[in-house]
Amino acid sequence: MKTTLLFIAGLSINIANAQTFEYLDINLVKARVNSGGDLHWDPTTGNSGYECPQGSGKTWSSTASIWMGGLDVGGQLHLAAQTYHQSGVDFWPGPLTTSGATTNSTTVNQYNRVWKLNKTDIDDFLTNFANGNVQNGSFTPTADLLSWPANGDISQNYASQLAPYMDVDGDAVYNPMAGDYPLIKGDQAIYTIFNDAHQLHQSAGKILGTEVHLMAYAYGPCSITSNNSFLNYTTFYNFKIINRSSFALVNTYAGLFNDFDLGTYMDDYVGSDVADHYAYSYNSLISPSNEPAIGIVQLKGPIESSNSIDDDFDGTIDEPLEQMSMTNFMYFNNSFPGVPLSQVDPSNASQYFQYMNGFWRDGTPLTCGGNGYGGSTPTKFAYTSNTYTNGPCGTTSWVENGAGSDKKFVMSSGPYTLQPGAVDELEYAYIVSFDSITNNPLAKLDTDVQTLHSIYNSTLNQCLTTSIKEQKNQTVFTLSPNPTNGTLNISCDLKTNGFKIEVIDALGKVLISEEYKVLNQTSINVSNLSSGIYFVKVISGENTSTKKFIKE
Questions:
Q1: Are residues 501 and 453 in the same domain?
Q2: Helix (H/G/I), strand (E/B), else coil: 396
Q3: 3-class DSSP string for 132-198
Q4: Whether residue 304 sits in one domain with residue 245
Q5: Other C-beta atoms within 10 Å of 426: how many?
Q6: What is the mean pLDDT of the chain?
Q7: Considering the domain boundaries, does residue 422 fall inside one?
Q8: Stretch 228-251: mean pLDDT, rounded?
């Protein structure tokens, strides 16, 4: 394999920095997730860790990792961009201190792991906790639920709240014996925390001081996957990026690096769909029916509400909390003999950053047509087919042709400003699309992507009770009295018409659901509820908020 040949020189480094890992394997994809944030490969051998269909022995991906870079007020480039570990890494396990953005070997070793949970693990815990079996010791929750990295060590100046969880008793301390439990996305999730500040970077970029929380997840059998079969071939990756440093970064870009290997790795084609916010790879040999097209869909991006651009393509410019989508798609080639030096792997921080900005290794811009090098019209997206006809390349459909090659690419978002303490999210979905009927996996992929966009913020979570729900803004309200033995008063000052109030038990079951035209102060009779812990959710349009109350 190509990857095995690449890693012999760096094997001793990889073994010395061995990573723990788990696989997403609840559907037809088996995707490896490593501590330290590497995806889809084994750093010690270079072998692929992305199999689809699961059990087929067919692997399609070499590696993937996030890239981040920006300039400080002095114009110095700070960058973390990990690839293949030949000369080191840019990310290490664990969080950073909230002042100084530092860590140490003890913390790195402590967090050199991943946590894997199925939704059924949490459901079993909730059922047994409600029945008293957790408290009396007759039921032992799964180890990763018990050790969930919810709280940082505040005595060492780490953040007190890390991995998401339901704080049932409201004391801000994760304690499953008190009923607290992890909050995950999907039906299966893998969680890990990593940073870019433990040591110097292999990319030679200056340290950013970022802490990253990765939740990789997938959906298993339920009604939503039955009605949307492509979800059986889809995995999701949510990166929560926290700037723990004391300085702002301007002209910041963040994105995802990826190296697919379809067929024999020397015949890959790549492309981008600007309208639907995804990048893709496919085989150049007229799409053999036994090989897929694989797309990476950007679902979330950095917040940017002041650049006079409709970043999320919703028809509104600079609305509050507007998220950027994919603003650049750039490819480059493996450093094989005969490939022009201007178009191969980056070797220093500036070259990594140039690829994120849509510039070649030698600093010349990506241009329309041909292979994207040496033309007269700069563009930010390579091989856009017919999805960017209002862009600089005009109405001509730009697709790759001729012999394929061993390509890698980075899809990025920017520029934006990353303030100290800021939290940004990047989220991507990998979709593997096979089409043995019409032998057109690219068309199948496009249909799958559009369906994903249509269900992502709505029905995608309908099967879940213990998962994180996608929320936008929070509706502020108060509950009184709390605890209560009969009547619960709900007060809200938000001047908006149209509210829905739900009362939910600890298992996620909706017990009461009422709609109101105006919500100033409303009373709900909860006297028929059994004694215990419940939640009130107030929903107004896309705004939601949830609070806990106790029924005596």
A1: no
A2: coil
A3: CCCCCCCCCCCHHHHCCCCCCCHHHCECCCCCCEECCCCCCCCCHHHCCEECECCCEEEEEEEECCC
A4: yes
A5: 25
A6: 87
A7: yes
A8: 96
Min mean pLDDT across 116-130, 170-184, 379-393, 486-500 is at: 486-500
Peptide bond into 346 cis (omega under 30): no
Helix or strand holding residue 480 (H, E)? strand 478-480
Of 532 and 127, the one with more pLDDT: 127
pTM for the whole structure: 0.83
Q: Please state, in angstroms and rounded to a whole number, the distance separating the CA atoms of residues 415 and 114.
A: 31
Q: Which of 415, 433, 461 represents a domain boundary (last residue)?
A: 461
Between CA 406 and CA 259 the distance in angstroms is 9
- Give the separation between CA 55 and CA 23, rounded to whole angstroms: 13
Is the distance from CB of 424 to CB of 254 less than 8 angstroms? yes
Q: Are residues 371 and 292 in the same domain?
A: yes
* Residue 394 and residue 427 share a domain: yes
Same domain? For 439 and 517 the reply is no
Residues 531 and 388 in one domain: no
Would you say residue 472 lies in a domain? Answer: no
Domain coverage including residue 97? 2-461
Whether residue 66 is found in the same domain as residue 191: yes
Give the position of tokens 């007759």.
138
Interatomic CA distance for residues 277 and 275, integer angstroms: 6
| 319 lies in some domain | yes
Task: Evaluate if residue 471 carries a pLDDT over 70.
Answer: no
Residue-wise pLDDT for 380-405, tens only, equals 999 999 999 999 999 999 999 877 78
pLDDT of residue 548: 76
SS3 of 412-438: EEEEEEECCCCEEEEEEEEEEECCCCC
Query: Buried b vs exposed e over 196-229: b needs ≥16 C-beta within 10 Å?
Result: bbbeebbbbbbbbbbbbbbbbbbbbeeebbeebe
Which residues lie below 8 Å from residue 265, measured CB to CB, with a gap of 6+?
Answer: 2, 406
The reported pLDDT for the residue numbered 507 is 61
- Looking at the structure, tell me whether residues 449 and 394 fall in a common domain: yes
| Residue 527 covered by a domain | yes
